[in-house]
Amino acid sequence: xxxxxxxxxxxxxxxxxxxxxxxxxxxxxxxxxxxxxxxxxxxxxxxxxxxxxxxxxxxxxxxxxxxxxxxxxxxxxxxxxxxxxxxxxxxxxxxxxxxxxxxxxxxxxxxxxxxxxxxxxxxxxxxxxxxxxxxxxxxxxxxxxxxxxxxxxxxxxxxxxxxxxxxxxxxxxxxxxxxxxxxxxxxxxxxxxxxxxxxxxxxxxxxxxxxxxxxxxxxxxxxxxxxxxxxxxxxxxxxxxxxxxxxxxxxxxxx
Length: 255
Hints:
Layout: H1 4-29, H2 34-39, E1 62-63, H3 69-72, E2 85-86, E3 94-97, E4 103-108, E5 115-122, E6 127-134, E7 140-145, E8 158-166, E9 177-184, H4 197-206, H5 210-223, H6 228-240
Parallel strand pairs: 3-9
Antiparallel strand pairs: 1-9, 2-4, 4-7, 5-6, 5-8, 8-9
Helix pairs in contact: 4-5, 5-6
């Protein structure tokens, strides 16, 4: 038979174990999984009001079909591949950024080209910078960024950016090119607060800052290639800007 001291000890141990199990159960229940957090989130691009974008944005686009001559007859070129396109809102061919050296995204089908040239041209037709960027030639969305040594974009200024596909050993005037526009704006005050990467991308999207939102989401998807929730967020974001044709194409952000 237990004496009173042993009985009190067993009661105390029992209460401790019950309390511990309750705490563990509560803490487990209150921890949302990353998948659940991502599934409920959608990031839809909200175009900004007109901020003096260049009149020529709608007429910009691509020269030719952005395909090297040697690729046009190649048996390895898939006929069902989407055409090359700059990842920029389809209704304006224009986007905002807060970055001094923004990242641009372009979809390329299979190509034998080994490099591209990223050119930035000021509104007075002055070549602002040029950067040679190697590419792997596989179909997918690639990222382009000016060299760190290139002059930074000025706040409030518009620039035309162009990607030239170098089809031979050296650039040629006949090389295919795709163009779009960018304008640098000041960083929104709301971005000064600490946020997760997805929250930052959402703020950029709601503010109409296309290039920053797109590059942020591309980085997230690139680091979580098997996360279906993140893939859905990325796909829906591109579709909200009229980029349905390449919304599910692979990311190849080696650069």
